[in-house]
Amino acid sequence: MRRWIPLLVFAVLGVFLYLGLYLNPKEVPSPLVGRPAPDFTLPVVGRPGETFSPSEVRGEVWLLNIWAPWCSVCLEEHRHLPRMVADRVPVYGLTWKDLDREAAPLLARNGSPYVAAVDDHDGRIAIRYGVTVTPETFVIDREGMIRMKHVGPITPAVWEKKFEPLLRELQS
Amino acid sequence: MIAELGQFSIALALALALVQGSVPLVGAHRGDRRLMALAKPLAQAQFVLLVFAFAALAWSFLTHDFSVRNVAQNSFSQLPAMYRFTATWGSHEGSLLLWTMILAGWSAAVSVFARPLPEEMVARVLGVMGLISVGFLALLLLTSSPFERLFPIPADGRDLNPLLQDLGMVSHPPLLYMGYVGFSVAFAFAIAALLSGRLDAAWARWSRPWTTTAWTFLTLGVGLGSWWAYRELGWGGWWFWDPTENASLMPWLAGTALIHALAATEKRGVFGNWTVLLAIATFSLSLLGTFLVRSGVLSSVHAFATDPTRGLFILVFLGLVVGGSLTLYALRAPRMMGGGSFGWLSRESLLLANNVFLVAALGAVLLGTLYPLFLDALGLGKISVGPPYFNAVFVPLVAPVLFLVGIGPLARWKQADLHDLLWRLKWAFAVALITAALLPLTLDGMNLQVTLGLFLALWILFTVLKGFAVRLQHHRGSRIRQLARLPRAFWGMQLAHAGLALLVVGVTIVSNYETERDVRMPIGSHLELAGYRFVFQGVEELPGPNYLAGRGTMEVTSPWGRSFTLYPEKRNYNASGMIMTQAAVNYGPFRDVYVSLGDPLGDGAWTVRVYHKPFVGWLWAGTLLLALGGGLAAADRRYRVAQRRRSAPASVAGPLRSIAGEGAA
Predict the structure, then answer these.
(1) Mean of the pLDDT values across residues B501-518?
(2) B646, B544, B556, B637: which is closest to B593 by C-alpha?
(3) Is the pLDDT reported for residue B472 higher than 90?
(4) Which of A45, A163, B165, B439 sits at 20 to 30 Å (Cα–Cα) from B521?
(5) How many CB pairs under 8 A join A and B?
(6) Phi/psi at B607 (5° precision)
(7) Interface residue ranges in chain A relative to chain B, Cβ cutoff 8 Å
(8) Can you tell me the ipTM of this complex?
(9) Can you give the residue ranges of every domain in chain A?
């Protein structure tokens, strides 16, 4: 019997390795989920003189999408975002470290998926949101609380599985 | 065309591997010599085919054949030729091809050098290796073909990951794989022994030189990986307890335990079952490492792209190999082992203690590496296990091993005399302890960590010297000639142990006495660190072959007035747009001075990180000495003597022992 122990240990290990294949180790839950979204007032990209602050949309469910002009995945996401969102929810953009001032012409040229995109030039607000990569998207509820954080681009599958049910719940 | 030929030869190699993995095994079972005789030519032909496939891929890289997807994704028109060649194994697919080629290389080597072994044994060993080869070749063909074409053909490639464009990376993977895959020979010998039902000293003797050789390569591979991280990642660390690093450390620990257990099994016929289990475990851990690095199960700084199909394939393969061999072990391992009895204090008992601690350390690393996965799979949250855990559990488990290194080689087999040992080692112990306790006081006061580390290192060094003295005391004549006459196995063991001591000195001193500063430096400003004076002369643009570098100039003056200039770089790679930090290091026997550039702050000022790392070079010197010792031990004369006598039976251990000398374990 004793000589079966190594096999047994390995079998248990194998089960965990198998389960591990379907988990994503990079997806770390944000400690900000369930906390109020950090407030800020920042200039809106491409609309001189205008500013945006989360307090303006209090009472509404909205998305904050972190992007950067040099992030090719974000630009790809821009192309699909409007179709998926389909006016279900307002999407605001946080432009991260647009050091070369490319964001405004880029949004004007490609069409902006945002109600408004604000300019986080030195990346300070992104730090308060705990942003590690672009793109990242936060779902913020009517009370101004962060309800979910999604890391990486929003694909149709992700939209359907993660965003749709949550939005339905929050907007009802 | 070349790419298709490469693909074709992989397919052909798979066909050969299927035959090699079945027919000779059947032949050995039935005692049919004609079937067994197939093993050797098949193994050699497979090697030729895979070398050709590898050359085809290297050719595609060297000639910029961007119609091959692998080349388009991992090369670039401006990439220098040397890195185009090394890019051959820079991707998952390419490195897998390198892996299979090396596996075929080891099989071919077994077929050539194992001539004196009984035919059955060779057929079984090569058969098992053929089966492993089948798994990897199928993985290569089904999920990760390196020769896939791309249409339309891109105008240029996406460039090799800049992190891999480094000297250390050129040789790190091949050496590491030589080690990983080399343990497949030890594994195959163990399985062959289980299949034949004869777990005697003979199989241990046969697999010893192979195991030691694989261990030597793995030591070099792990060492080079650490050196690469030190130079290339830009923050001067040499070990991060990253899952990828742990994946190479675990087989190394198991392999170290294995070469010691094999010594006891060969000389005294003890620990037979345990040694077989270790041989299986060592290769299984190599496979587990492959799985962890390539499946994306764990998040790591240098894991390959994640792909669940590949991961699943490797896992199924891992399950078959490990599950199959452990089942065989459960069924076939003999219930009662023969072998001599031994006293509580003897070479055997000390080797057993060495194995217990090494395996415990291995278990601690395995647990720490997989713990995040366990918790995540059970839905208990996401955590990451970092250096504090590993340092806290690893050091106390390895320290006893280091202490035993001092005693083991001087203890007799069967029954050692405690008084005799104490008497012989009293000076080594006392001098090491007093020196280690006093040295930190001369630097910056009491430091128990430093005392422990230095004590262990000095203890090992003194006992190594004592080992030589004991061997020479009964001989007359010239000392030099006597030293040269000592068996290589003895030299190998002592050098490897001395290397371990150097390694411990390096680790202890650099972790306790390194200093660093991270400051803003305008042009012409200076800073002082550990008596060194650094003057920053600014950063200028300098185009490289496939990148644009900002090259900083730092004039350094040592406390002794010697001055030199360091050129740390910040490189922007043209194709990928990735920014890389290239640290500049001034190497010295007693310290490295390490400068890396941070970010520009305007007006020519930069953030600059400067490190003074005392004794860090001893880490790699120690690693080299470990490997040199391994190489010498593997090349010991008695293995060749054993080869000259055709098919040495088990009992030969007796007379041969006198040739090798008693001390060489």
Answers:
(1) 92
(2) B556
(3) no
(4) B165
(5) 71
(6) -85, 135
(7) 3-4, 6-7, 10-11, 13-14, 16-23, 25-29, 70
(8) 0.80
(9) 36-171
Give the distance from residue A21's alpha carbon to the nearest chain B alpha carbon, in angstroms.
5
What is the b/e burial string over B466-481, where b = at least 16 CB atoms within 10 angstroms of the residue's CB? bbbeebeeeeeeeeee
Q: What is the Cα–Cα distance from B276 to B88, expressed in whole angstroms?
A: 35
**pLDDT tier, B234 (very low <50, low <70, confident <90, very high otherwise):** low
B18 or B472, which is more confident: B18
Give me the pLDDT at residue B339, please.
Answer: 63
Can you tell me whether residue B206 is helix, strand or coil? helix
Shortest Cα distance, chain A CAs vs residue B191, angstroms: 15
CA distance B378 to chain A (A): 9
pLDDT of B665: 42
Distance from the Cα of A159 to chain B's closest Cα (Å) equals: 21
pLDDT in tens, B297-356: 766 544 444 566 778 888 899 999 999 999 999 988 876 556 677 888 899 999 999 999
Residue B647 pLDDT > 50: no
B372/A25 Cβ within 8 A: yes
The rounded distance, in Å, linking the Cα atoms of A13 and A25 is: 17
Edge-first strand order for the sheet with B605-614 is B515-521, B605-614, B591-602, B584-586
- The pLDDT confidence band at residue B102, using thresholds 50, 70 and 90, is very high
Sorted by sequence, the CB contacts under 8 Å of residue B63 that are 6+ apart come out as: none
Q: Is B328 on the interface with A (CB under 8 A)?
A: no
DSSP-derived 3-state class of residue A136: strand
pLDDT of residue B114: 81
Average per-residue pLDDT in chain A?
86
Q: Please check whether residue B404 is in contact with residue B345, taking contact to mean a CB–CB distance below 8 angstroms.
A: no
Of B281, B297, B330, the CB nearest to A17: B297
- Judging contacts by C-beta atoms under 8 Å, the chain B residues touching residue A18 are 312, 315
Whether pLDDT at B173 is above 90 = no
Query: In whole angstroms, how far apart are CA A49 and each of A52, A103, B249?
Result: 10, 16, 58
Report the run of H or E that residue B40 belongs to, with start and end.
helix B39-62
How crowded is the C-beta side of B174, counted as CA atoms within 13 Å? 13
What is the rounded CA–CA span in Å between residue B318 and residue B315? 5
**Tell me, what's the pLDDT at B592?**
93
Of B62 and B603, which is predicted with more confidence?
A: B62
Kindly give the parts of chain A with pLDDT less than 50. none
| Beta pairing partners, B570 | B550, B581
* Residue B325 in tokens: 């061999």
CA distance B409 to B431: 19
CATH class of A36-171: alpha beta
A27 contacts in chain B (CB < 8 Å): 382
Side chain identity at residue A89, one-letter code: V
Residue in B closest to A12 by C-alpha: B374
CB–CB contact A25 B315 (8 Å): no
Helix-strand-coil split of chain A, %, nearest 5 = 40, 20, 40
Q: Are A112 and A126 in contact (CB under 8 A)?
A: no
Q: Please, how many CA atoms are within 13 Å of residue B636, restricted to the half-sphere of its CB? A: 29
In three-state secondary structure terms, B614 is strand
**Cα angle B196, B200, B203; round to 5:** 70
Residue of A98, A86, A82 whose CA lies nearest to A42: A98
Q: What is the pLDDT of residue B654?
A: 37
Lowest mean pLDDT: which of A132-136, B201-205, B438-442, B513-517? A132-136
| Tens-place pLDDT, residues B349-400 | 999 999 999 999 999 999 998 888 888 888 777 777 778 889 889 999 999 9
Q: Which two tokens stand for residue B334?
A: 């003999």
Dist. CA B126–CA B583, nearest whole Å: 46
Residue of B nearest to A6 (CA): B326
